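Lab notebook, design round three. We kept the backbone fixed and only want residue identities now. Task for the bench partner: fill in a sequence for the structure below.
Input structure tokens:
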């Protein structure tokens, strides 16, 4: 059961709330849990109170991607909504289906297009999961198994049952899945450079008003002894060399935020079209040539089926806009 104390009225601040996580909500990300339970509270505000540390799970600070478990006590600080914010009704996400690579009664594997967030939040009203839920109103359960960056295309898993979600997430957490991305990088990647083992640190840029840590999220490589660094390992194989670029098959052994983008850029070979960690002048030239987005694609995925245990291998071919720049053909999965 959950315990929620309502607002006193328009413009008033609600008291501290404690939400109890029930069995049905177990395994959800903290941000998704709060968005579902704090009706009428803008998603931007939900992310703000999480980042500020005011939201506590079992009395401890938690991040937006923290997974809540049954029985957890989630403390929510007083929330003051202006009359305008309260009067504003968030429009539901438009229903949308996505190209399906595999589907049964346990899960969906879809081919996510670039430019679509996997879920709403942080300035994005909705994403794949909200649109899919609107397109399938009779579906009792649809939850993201993992994430892809907004500008990354390719394979994305959605669970249709709680048991499938937890089993698949365990595989991702224990690195029992096999994930290969295709990335086009500037310059010729040295064939002998096959492993990048460099810790990463997440931070926030200054806000538009100059406030430290109030702006966009960024990631950087830090020294091995940095206390804030999280170990990150990326494996790289050259698929082909182009005149001024290299097409790489990239496997990640850890799932850090922006890991591939930051690791490749740290080696002097940023991903083509990457507007955060890339080369501005090169990106500008590529844009004129027709590359309108970052060349990063979740190409191949292996995992054990959550119900049968069968090893599943999926392939999402490069979309036409990327294939035109660097064709990459491979045999169908076995």
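Proposed sequence:
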């Amino acid at each position: 059961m959950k315990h929620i104390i309502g607002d006193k009225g328009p413009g008033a601040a609600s008291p501290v709330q404690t939400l109890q996580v029930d069995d049905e909500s177990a395994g959800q990300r903290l941000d998704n849990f709060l968005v579902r339970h704090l009706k009428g509270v803008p998603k931007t505000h939900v992310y703000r109170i999480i980042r500020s540390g005011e939201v506590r799970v079992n009395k401890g600070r938690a991040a937006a991607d923290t997974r809540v478990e049954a029985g957890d006590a989630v403390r929510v600080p007083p929330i003051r909504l202006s009359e305008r914010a309260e009067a504003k009704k968030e429009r539901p996400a438009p229903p949308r289906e996505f190209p399906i690579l595999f589907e049964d009664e346990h899960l969906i594997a879809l081919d996510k297009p670039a430019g679509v967030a996997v879920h709403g939040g942080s300035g994005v009203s909705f994403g794949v999961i909200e649109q899919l839920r609107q397109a399938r109103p009779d579906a009792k359960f649809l939850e993201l198994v993992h994430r892809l960056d907004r500008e990354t295309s390719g394979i994305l898993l959605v669970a249709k049952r709680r048991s499938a979600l937890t089993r698949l997430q365990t595989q991702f957490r224990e690195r029992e899945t096999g994930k290969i991305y295709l990335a086009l990088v500037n310059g010729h990647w040295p064939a002998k450079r096959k492993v990048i083992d460099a810790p990463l640190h997440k931070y926030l840029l200054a806000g538009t008003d100059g406030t430290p840590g109030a702006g966009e999220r960024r990631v950087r490589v830090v020294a091995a002894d940095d206390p804030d660094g999280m170990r990150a390992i990326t494996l790289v194989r050259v698929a082909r060399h182009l005149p001024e670029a290299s097409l790489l098959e990239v496997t990640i052994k850890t799932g850090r935020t922006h890991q591939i983008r930051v690791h490749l850029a740290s080696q002097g070979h940023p991903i083509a079209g990457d507007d955060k960690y890339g080369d501005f002048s090169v990106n500008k030239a590529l844009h004129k040539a027709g590359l309108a987005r970052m060349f990063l694609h979740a190409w191949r995925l292996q995992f054990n089926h959550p119900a049968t245990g069968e090893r599943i291998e999926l392939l999402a071919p490069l979309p036409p806009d990327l294939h035109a720049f660097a064709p990459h053909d491979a045999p169908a999965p076995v």
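Keep this in mind before ordering anything: The CA atoms of residues 57 and 249 lie 38 Å apart.
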